[in-house]
Design a protein that fits this description.
Low-confidence stretches of chain C: none
Number of strands of chain C: 6
Mean pLDDT of chain A: 83
Helix content of chain C: 40-55%
Shape of chain A: elongated
Low-confidence stretches of chain A: none
Radius of gyration of chain C: 41 Å
CATH class of the largest domain in chain C: Mainly Alpha
Number of helices of chain C: 36
CATH superfamily of the largest domain in chain C: Cytochrome c-like domain
CATH superfamily of the largest domain in chain A: Rieske [2Fe-2S] iron-sulphur domain
Strand content of chain C: under 5%
Largest sheet of chain C: 2 strands, antiparallel
Chains: A alpha+beta, B mainly alpha, C mainly alpha, D mainly alpha
Radius of gyration of chain A: 30 Å
Number of domains of chain C: 6
CATH class of the largest domain in chain A: Mainly Beta
Largest interface: B-D, 94 and 102 residues
Strand content of chain A: 25-35%
Oligomer: heterotetramer
CATH topology of the largest domain in chain A: Rieske Iron-sulfur Protein
Mean pLDDT of chain C: 90
Number of strands of chain A: 11
Chain lengths: ~170, ~350, ~950, ~260
């Protein structure tokens, strides 16, 4: 074995140790940092639940159903083959409108904003229609309403398949 | 009547162009603006004007809101230091024209002095003065404290901290992803990039305007008009529902401003062409997309070829710097452009893709 | 080495690199280890398993659902769909034309919407300006603005009209298109309807796939995005954990592993996948305790916030066998540093008490109720305070105020010394001859104490002369009467063991050896009128005739206990008496002055003094009325918060075989309280004084459950079961009913009715079961009835006794029944009979066709009646109850002899000829008929 | 012994000499020694160009920013003794500081100081730009300065939530609402739609960048705690380190700026 090849062998050996050392070191530090990142997302979240199960679509008669109004702030409206979950917060200043069955409209007692059954505004100071919530069917046939996802008419979101249930 | 005039004038639609023009005049005639005489006259005029402003109940109540105090201090500081910087620059530029070089470079100012006590004492004085100032401020004005946090009821208007109100004002014209994320990110990136883009070796270490006219113009426009001015609008002139209210106007909850805005696609497809909107999203927005791309992609090379300023700049700084600089400038200018489009054409979005949360 | 060494280098670079490599490797391994340790959790495996179980269930459901679908029909639908598509295809051109129309209309619609939007904004703005100008009284401006506003408004109105027009057109075109497509749309909908269930199930099944996406979602590091395997929680704001500085809302993670606890259909799975066994009462969505509201550890105890493994939540095995099993299966260990481990399965009902604190007996809580009944039986509450439910009760033992008139002193002493030697069913516990006081010197003291107690009691006893004379009677007859009139509801009786054991009555003493105990005259007068001897006794009068009373007395006196009669009690040991007195007195004084003090007392004084002190020491006054002890508190510790007492505060003495658990201590203690003194050298006065009740392990365990339920847990008001005013009154009434042992005979709203167990052959021969009694009977009638009991069911042998109720108790009972049944105070029963035309005739017809008089014969014929006298019904029953009763008696009293004339639903009359077979009308008519009977 | 004599004696003790290595800075040697030998003063050079001490030239805004940072550190540290970052107590503690805690005015100083720091740091940047002091060799330090500016804003922003009043939570709601629109990382940002496979939503309000910032889907107690930690520990630490770098580079890149 001549000197040259010995040196190159040394170099290779040396190279591999330095590589192994630093690659492992960087990998470990990277791993620890990614664990720290993961640490910022808790496994259990204690925020109030924004979803609720609302029974079967057949539980609802045609028209406006007020059974979830007080508990979850939602009207279930069945109309023209669609079931929607309508927010009961007036889009004007946040009061809670009433459903007037005789006049087939929602009327806000605070400043008189009026909405059709569909949630579209047609009178009073309110700038935009009521909001709709995400509504979907679970495998067991129960409706699930998810209030975290809001659909706004003025954004053209009412055509989204998540914003209504075909019945 | 005068008050109503002021109310009208301060509407961004009018005040923004006014401020821009004022900015141009200020830089163009900076030597006049930077003179002591100008300063004295301005103060002399401003004192009674301010007194008259303060005599108005609505104005006073907005100004004296505790959380608005810092903005007033900021305003005074910015006004003074802008004048002061231009004053210094004017002095230096006059000297440079005379071939004397800047004041800071005179031998007596280059002389080395002991840190102790010269610097240390200067700092100590600043600290003492600052402490005294803070203590007085703290005693005179209580820190704001409103009613306890209530997640179910939002105050109207809900405002971000004052130093972010420029960004919140941008929300009127841009979607949050632009106004809240992309543009602030570009501001930071652009600021960091300044030393690497600005290759002008002159004006290193002394006040001057003439030797760095373009750099200072660009920076000051961003800083004074697009940042400080927007903060002022956001703090003082935006009331419930983010509606504009003049400085003397009562914040009437019911004030309505006609604002029905239309997308570019709607203008073209419906108003101009008279056919409905195409189903395909990209086809629908194709004009806006082409326009936006053209704005970013076509303008810089065209500018570099077609204009003298562009040619010189391109030659001076090289291609990469040039394109980065142009990109940043174009992004900066997108705000005033969007403002003007909104005011002139009630344009909502150039590219309206709410389906992808991608509105421009 | 030395050849390539650089100058100014302490180490060679290769060496540094080598060390770096080794350390980095170790660093890397530890990082990976930590990473895995954080990721791999037992509950994740359980959730994966539960997913597979769910999949199995879905597959079964799917099969069932597929079977249900008529495949022929589906095929036919598919065929007609294909046909429909052909038809529609032939209309292609028309449809295309309509769709082009639609597009044009929609374009216009959109344009109009924009226009209207602009108008709307302009109108609003102008309106605001106009209003402002009006307010500022700027007439000129406002007039100008008004004019502009009018123009804008007109434009807006026109725009709105146009919009509506366009919308109408759009609708029309849409209808047209739908019409053109109708063959397809209709069939598609039908197909969709028939396959909905299957589609949904398919979707659900898909969610249980162990697909790559499932893997990605649960991949380490990115399992925060949207994991399918995750900790499930219930936050219960209305029940708190006591963190001592603060009450913190409970959080339960139990459902992380008990995945199907609230879903029916998993009853047969192994744990932890099993459905809750009482879904209709607990956990279920429709139940009174839905999972999201009540949680798990609110009732079961344990550490709901822990998920690490089986042990961390403090699961507790119910038996040795289960313990072995768990050790093998889950590596179970005793929980440490956990103040309240889970309640063992058989003791779970202890958890009810936390919220249902005021009610006497809790429907559905069998173990708890039996425990409380045992506590009632042994009178634990007399010495111990046990929560609010046990407050203000009667003294469990008989009054000793006139004892000298009942038994003689010698009998008394022997009885106190060892009650079981006289009556092996005695409820009176044994204070003496226990494992801790059987040393000769202790026995000597104990006997002295018993002598002194007897002297004291008899000294204070008032004279008593019986008001009846015993005339002797027929013992056989007496025994029969005892077994029939209802004595067994409260007493067990020698010679009637079979029945007594069935009933397990406990309110009164087991009757044995009375011939060796009481005088005949006393017994007869006691039987005839118990309150003559003891004013506040709960023993009621059975309204016995002289003959009956004498027959019973004869039988009872024939019961004798010869061995007990032969016993004599050693007389008073004066030396021991003085020693004890000196001991008492030296507690606050030197020995010498105590001796001097005792020496100064007369002999009688000494005896009575020791008697009184001994009664105080053993707490006799807690159970028995005794003179000189008014206002004395019970001597036992307060058990109201016993269920939260730290385990370290329980003295286990040298009883190492008793497991160091709260419940084990209580059970052991109840069975033999003296055990804690065993092997411990104690002085006489420090001996454990809790007497021995000789209770069975089963009884002790039930009582343990009750005591465990007495926790210190603070439940926020919103979480407590708060009785409404009706329930509160009902609870009060049940307290009175408990005192007089009404439920020894009557089953009230499904609870107890002990004596009914002796009537298993024909439940209708027993005392009537009371269901919603406040609704059944009129309040006034009930009040009157308590004062003057009159037989309603003359064919029954068992008698409603006449109770010695105070006015207050009577009112409590009637008010409780009435409000518990939701009856209003001032509701006038509809006593006025107002016949509709033809109704009365119909009623008469029904009366005949249903043949009411065949049972309700009283007043109609001479047949033996089998049902109450209907002439009295109008005074006694509420009309609304009669209607309810008529419509379906079995629903109220299962097994009643009253037939259901209107089917199970109460809607299908067996005689449809009257009132067109309208059940409601028939029932109303019959009710009126019955009420009218009472008026005649 | 005269007063002077006593002073002389004291100066000759071992204790005095162990602390002060040199005489009073009234001559060149000692003036150099006092700056070089004192850990706090040695941030400064021993000598500097005269323009560097002229307020008209330097405006002293950087120095003031640092001083206010120190003042905020001290007052903030003291406020932490009374303030509890929980939804139940945060507001009450602030009220207590305002109403009855001795020297509760510290909160006012802290709050106004925070605003003042934002202003001074902006004007510092303004001055540095106007004198062209970012030009070589100071490009890197300008970058550090910009990051410090951003961190100053973040410090103020995170502190804004802590009083837990309406002003606080709604300002932070508006402010953090923008994070929701971050492209690809926020649930309402462009591109978030694309990050989903079936019902596996990779960017939603439960896992986006806003959730990370707030520890929840909206400004609630976890957000209060996170902002507290960021405000009191995390950002000050980073700022402290960067300030050290900033000062070091000021010295190394030619001292307080002056014409080259």
């Amino acid at each position: 074995m001549n000197l040259d090849s010995k040196q190159s062998l040394n170099r290779r050996e040396f190279f591999s140790y330095i590589t192994v050392g630093w690659v492992m070191f960087s990998a470990s530090v990277g791993g620890l940092l990614s664990l720290c990142f993961r640490f910022t997302y808790p496994n259990v979240n204690f925020e109030p639940e924004m979803e609720f199960l609302a029974g079967a679509p057949t539980d609802y008669p045609s028209g406006v159903d007020e059974r979830w109004k007080n508990l979850y702030g939602v009207w279930m409206v069945k109309q023209e083959g669609k079931l929607i979950a309508l927010s009961n917060i007036c889009t004007h200043l946040g009061c809670i409108p009433n459903w007037l069955p005789a006049e087939l409209k929602f009327k806000c007692p605070c400043h008189g904003s009026g909405y059709y059954m569909s949630g579209i505004n047609f009178e009073g100071p309110t700038p935009r229609p009521l909001e709709r919530f995400k509504i979907g069917l679970q495998p067991d046939g129960k409706i699930k309403v998810d209030k975290t996802k809001v659909f706004r008419w003025e954004k053209g979101e009412w055509d989204s398949p998540d914003s209504f249930l075909e019945v | 009547m005068l008050r109503e005039l002021f109310n009208k004038l301060s509407d961004p639609i009018i005040s923004f162009p006014l401020v821009t023009i004022g900015f141009y005049l200020m830089l163009k005639h900076y030597k006049t603006f930077g003179s002591k005489k100008f300063a004295y006259w301005t103060v002399a005029i401003l004192i009674p004007v301010t007194a008259w402003f303060l005599s108005d109940h609505n104005f006073f109540s907005i100004i004296s809101t505790p959380d608005n105090i810092p903005i007033i201090i900021l305003l005074v500081c910015v006004a003074f230091f802008t004048w002061f910087a231009l004053h210094k620059a004017a002095l230096n530029d006059t000297r440079i024209e005379e071939g004397l070089g800047p004041i800071e470079a005179t031998p007596e100012n280059r002389e080395k002095v002991w840190s102790w006590p010269n610097l240390v004492y200067t700092e100590l004085f600043a600290m003492i003065a600052c402490t005294a100032f803070l203590v007085v401020w703290a005693i005179v004005f209580k820190a704001p404290l409103e009613e306890s946090a209530n997640p179910t009821w939002a105050p109207n208007p809900a405002k971000a901290p004052w130093y972010f109100l420029g960004l919140q004002e941008m929300l009127v014209y841009f979607d949050p992803w632009m106004a809240g994320v992309v543009l602030p990110g570009l501001i930071v990136a652009g600021l960091i990039a300044i030393p690497y883009i600005d290759t002008n070796p002159k004006g290193n270490g002394y006040f001057t305007l003439k030797e760095r006219a373009m750099a200072i113009t660009a920076f000051l426009y961003g800083w004074l008009v697009l940042w400080v001015y927007l903060i002022i609008v956001g703090v003082f002139l935006r009331g419930p529902n983010w509606t504009f209210y003049g400085p003397f106007e009562y914040w009437d909850f019911h004030k309505v401003v006609a604002s029905f805005n239309v997308n570019l696609s709607e203008i073209i497809w419906i108003k101009t062409l008279g056919i409905g909107l195409p189903k395909n999203l990209v086809v629908r927005e194709i004009f806006g997309i082409i326009l936006s791309l053209a704005y970013i992609v076509i303008i810089p090379p065209w500018f570099a070829k077609a204009t003298r300023v562009g040619r010189n700049l391109f030659k001076d700084v090289g291609a990469i710097r040039y394109y980065i600089f142009m990109f940043l400038i174009l992004m900066t200018m997108s705000l005033p452009i969007k403002m003007i489009l909104r005011w002139l054409f009630s344009l909502k979005y150039i590219v309206a893709l709410p389906e992808w949360e991608l509105n421009l | 080495m030395s050849e390539n060494k650089e100058p100014a280098m302490a180490y060679s670079m290769p060496k540094l690199h080598k060390i770096m490599a080794i350390l980095s490797f170790i660093f890397f391994v530890t990082t990976v280890w930590m990473f895995l340790d954080d990721y791999i959790k037992p509950w994740k495996a359980i959730q994966v398993e539960s997913l597979q179980i769910k999949r199995r269930h879905i597959e079964n459901d799917l099969k069932a659902a597929q079977k249900k679908i008529d495949s022929h029909k589906l095929q036919a639908l598919n065929v007609s769909l294909a046909k429909g598509e052909e038809i529609v295809a032939s209309r292609k051109k028309e449809i295309e034309k309509e769709e082009a129309d639609l597009k044009a209309i929609r374009a216009k619609l959109k344009a109009q919407t924009i226009k209207n939007g602009i108008f709307n904004g302009d109108v609003s703005e102008k309106n605001f300006k106009y209003e402002t100008a009006m307010v500022e009284e700027n007439q000129k401006l406002s007039a100008k603005l008004l004019a502009e506003l009018e123009v804008l408004k007109a434009g807006f109105e026109a725009g709105k009209d146009n919009l509506k027009l366009l919308q109408g057109q759009e609708k029309a075109v849409l209808t047209k298109i739908a019409d053109l497509n109708k063959e397809v749309i209709g069939v598609q909908k039908e197909i969709k309807d028939t396959t909905t269930k299957i589609n949904l199930l398919d979707l659900a099944k898909k969610q249980t796939d162990l697909s790559p996406i499932f893997a990605i979602r649960n991949l380490p590091l990115i399992d925060y995005l949207d994991p399918t395997i995750k900790i499930q929680k219930i936050v219960i704001n209305n029940v708190t954990d006591d963190r001592y500085f603060r009450q913190v809302p409970k959080v339960d993670f139990c459902i992380t592993c008990h995945t199907f606890i609230d879903q029916p259909g998993y009853e047969k799975e192994k744990q932890p996948f099993r459905t809750h066994p009482k879904l209709d009462l607990m956990v279920g969505m429709e139940s009174k305790h839905p999972m999201k509201l009540t949680g798990c550890t609110s009732c079961h105890g344990g550490e709901g916030q822990r998920v690490t493994d089986f042990n961390s939540v403090a699961h507790m095995p119910d038996s040795e066998k289960q313990k072995e099993e768990w050790i093998k299966k889950y590596n179970w260990t005793e929980p440490h540093h956990i103040p309240s481990p889970m309640l063992k399965l058989s003791q779970t009902e202890a958890g009810c008490v936390k919220c249902h604190s005021d009610v006497q007996l809790l429907k559905g809580a069998t173990v708890l109720n039996e425990g409380r009944m045992a506590i009632e039986k042994y009178g634990c509450y007399a010495c111990h305070k046990i929560g609010t439910w046990a407050e203000n009760r009667r003294k469990p033992g008989p009054s000793l105020l006139k004892i000298a008139g009942k038994v003689d002193k010698e009998w008394f002493k022997s009885w106190v010394w060892e009650p079981r030697s006289f009556n092996k069913h005695s409820k009176m516990p044994a204070f003496f001859r226990q494992s801790n006081n059987s040393k000769p010197e202790f026995v000597r003291y104990n006997m002295t104490e018993v002598n002194a107690i007897a002297e004291y009691v008899y000294d204070k006893s008032k004279p008593y002369v019986p008001n009846e004379k015993y005339r002797s009677g027929n013992a056989e007859n007496g025994k029969k009467i005892i077994s029939q009139v209802g004595c067994l509801g409260c007493h067990g009786v020698d010679g009637l063991e079979e029945q007594s054991d069935k009933v397990k009555a406990y309110a009164g003493p087991w009757l044995t050896g009375l011939g060796s105990k009481v005088q005949a005259d006393w017994l007869v007068s006691w039987l005839k009128k118990p309150s003559h001897y003891q004013e506040d006794t709960i023993m009621p009068s059975m309204r016995l005739s002289d003959q009956e009373a004498n027959d019973i007395a004869t039988y009872l006196l024939s019961l004798r206990n010869k061995t007990f009669e032969a016993l004599t009690f050693t007389g008073l040991d004066k030396a021991a008496r003085d020693e004890l007195l000196v001991d008492y007195n030296s507690a606050f004084d030197t020995h010498d002055s105590a001796v001097a003090k005792v020496a100064k007392m007369s002999d009688r004084e000494k005896t009575l003094d020791l008697g009184k002190r001994s009664i105080g020491k053993y707490g006799c006054y807690s159970c028995h009325n005794l003179e000189g002890f008014d206002g004395f508190e019970g001597i036992g510790p307060n058990l109201t918060k016993e269920g939260s007492k730290p385990i370290t505060q329980f003295g286990f003495g040298l009883q190492h075989q008793v497991p160091h658990e709260r419940d084990a201590w209580i059970t052991a203690h109840l069975q033999r309280p003296s055990r804690w003194d065993e092997g411990v050298d104690k002085v006489f006065k420090d001996l454990n004084k809790m007497p021995n009740f000789y209770m069975s392990e089963a009884e002790a365990k039930k009582i343990t459950t009750v005591i465990l339920g007495q926790t210190a847990d603070v439940v926020p008001l919103a979480g407590l079961k708060r009785a409404n005013s009706g329930e509160a009154l009902y609870n009060e009434a049940m307290k009175v009913a408990g005192k007089y042992n009404c439920m020894g005979c009557h089953q009230i709203d499904g609870l107890r009715g002990d004596i009914l167990k002796a009537y298993q052959d024909d439940i209708n021969q027993g005392p009537p079961r009371l269901v919603n009694e406040g609704h059944r009977v009129q309040t006034d009638w009930l009040y009157h009835f308590f004062g003057n009991v009159q037989p309603i069911r003359p064919w029954l042998n068992i008698r409603m006794p006449s109770f010695n109720l105070s006015l207050e108790e009577k009112n409590k009972l009637i008010a409780g029944f009435q409000h518990g049944a939701g009856q209003k105070t001032f509701e006038e029963p509809e006593m006025e009979v107002d016949w509709q035309p033809g109704e009365k005739e119909g009623a008469q017809k029904l009366w005949n066709s249903y043949n009411c008089v065949s049972c309700h014969s009283i007043g109609f014929n001479k047949d033996t009646p089998l049902a109450p006298n209907l002439h009295l019904a109008s005074k006694r029953l509420r009309p609304s109850w009669i209607r309810k009763w008529l419509s379906n008696p079995q629903a109220i009293l299962p097994g009643t002899v009253m037939p259901s004339f209107f089917g199970e639903d109460g809607k299908t009359p067996t005689d449809p000829s009257v009132f067109e077979g309208n059940a409601d009308k028939q029932i109303a008519a019959l009710t009126k008929f019955v009420i009218e009977l009472g008026k005649k | 012994m005269s007063g002077k004599g006593i002073a002389q004696k004291v100066r000759e003790t071992q204790v005095w000499k162990s602390i002060f290595r040199h005489g009073p800075p009234d001559n060149s040697r000692n003036r150099a020694a006092v700056v070089a030998g004192n850990v706090f003063l040695h941030l400064h050079p021993i000598k500097l160009k005269k323009s560097g001490v002229q307020l008209g030239y330097t405006w002293c805004m950087g120095g003031l920013t640092f001083f206010i940072f120190l003042a905020l550190t001290v007052t903030g540290l003291l406020l932490m003794f009374y303030y509890r970052p929980t939804a139940e107590y945060a507001y009450n503690d602030i009220v207590a500081l305002r109403e009855h805690i001795p020297l509760g005015i510290m909160r006012e100083i802290h709050r106004w100081g925070a605003h003042a720091m934002v202003i001074t740091v902006w004007i510092h940047m303004f001055r540095v730009f106007m004198t062209g002091s970012y030009k070589p060799p100071r490009e890197f330090n300008w970058g550090v300065g910009v990051i410090l500016l951003v961190l100053t804003l973040l410090l103020s922003f995170t502190g804004y939530l802590l009083p837990w009043d309406q002003l606080a939570i709604w300002a932070i709601t508006v402010g953090s609402g923008m994070a929701k629109a971050t492209p690809f990382l926020g649930n309402a940002g462009p591109g978030a739609m694309l990050a989903r496979i079936g019902d596996f939503v990779m960017v939603s309000d439960k896992n986006d960048v806003r959730f990370q910032l707030l520890g929840g889907r909206f400004v609630g107690e976890p957000a209060l705690l996170r902002f507290y930690i960021l405000h009191c520990v995390f950002i000050p630490l980073v700022v402290g380190v960067l300030i050290a770098v900033h000062f070091w580079r000021v010295r190394k890149d030619g001292g307080i700026s002056a014409p080259l």
